[in-house]
Design goal:
Two copies of one chain form a homodimer. With 132 residues, chain A is mostly helical. Chain A is built from six helices and three strands. A three-stranded antiparallel sheet of chain A has the order 1-3-2. In chain A, helix 2 (38-46) packs across helix 5 (98-116).
């Protein structure tokens, strides 16, 4: 009789990161980077570092409060760095970390697909609404 | 004197799709696919077509109401198809369109990055919180 413990192919399930699982850090991080303003802020920073005001102009429609809340969450997750430059008045520059660059690149790829698909999306919506 | 109209390199700005612009269809579509449940539903469907109940089990924590609302929005945008199979009782299958596959692939790439980065994200959060 074989009494050896069952072979497993890796660590137990609960130790493997999985965005589908409610309690996983990666799921919370996914929600942070895909938030309404976070995805746009990351893509804007993907074009280069920006000051707060520049970012705000770039991300059409964001309020000062929402943008600073968004940037704080992204800084906390290690996606964005915040650098105070001691000019007069002091300047605050935001930039992506290595991890932030990877996420911004994936988001930008998705945005490119969506921008190219605008005619298809508009047509799909018209069809859906006319059938409703 | 040169009175010729200025040369432009393409269509006027307001006719170019741009996710940064509030009024652009691509911005609304970006919000649809990056929604809290939409990104997970798209990734789940990226693994193959699913029935409603299967999808619900896969996307840990989603309510029936939120999942059906999410799927309707994705169907309307032309990302997801809904097929009623006339078994007894009838079965409803959800699958990705070509556009949905492209979006799901980009989202999955991002999720892979986040899953691999869990230790870094956790460390960044601890550091941020200890400095606050």
């Amino acid at each position: 009789v074989n009494t050896a413990p069952e072979r497993t192919d890796g660590p137990p399930d609960e130790l493997v990161a999985n965005v589908f699982k409610r309690a996983c850090t990666s799921r919370a991080a996914l929600e942070d980077v895909t938030g309404k303003w976070a995805s746009l802020a990351l893509m804007a920073l993907g074009e280069g570092s920006h000051r707060f005001g520049e970012l705000r102009r770039h991300v059409d429609g964001v309020s000062e409060k929402m943008l600073s809340q968004t940037l704080r969450a992204l800084e906390r997750d290690g996606m964005v760095t915040r650098t105070v430059v001691s000019t007069l008045p002091p300047r605050v520059d935001y930039a992506l970390t290595g991890l932030g660059v990877q996420i911004a690149t994936a988001l930008r790829g998705m945005a490119d697909v969506l921008e190219d698909a605008v005619p298809d999306i508009a047509e799909a919506r018209e069809r859906y609404d006319s059938e409703a």
